[in-house]
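Need Large ribosomal subunit protein eL14 domain-containing protein's 3D structure for a figure. Predict it.
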Amino acid sequence: FTMSFSRYVEVGRIVLVNYGPESGKLATIIDVVDQNKCLIDGPEDITGVRRQVIPYRRIALTNLTVKIARNARAKTLKKAWADAEIESKWENSAWAKKLAAKSTRANLNDFDRFKVMVARKQKSAIIAKKMKQLA
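Structure prediction for Large ribosomal subunit protein eL14 domain-containing protein:
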């Protein structure tokens, strides 16, 4: 059993922009420009990413794809997104959940961090108590 490579740079591949002003947003590869760059589009009214050429080092490929032709129009792309239910699939993925948790944690204030610390202490106390009973 070998895990073969399955995420290819291809037309219709959903990517996560990981650098620049659109960082953290999803987009779709519409055309491959050359060895280092591709053309992506949001669709803009869903993800807020305008149609643009972007280097591969600024994007991360996801497991999601949509069926579109090369250089698809925004309307076609939007319909493909709706048909493939990309947003709901993304929100249910472990990757998206991890990013959401990370941003939640980053936006905590001092009192929230204190509450988290107290909760962790309580949890570890309960675990220690149970382990003591089992031993």
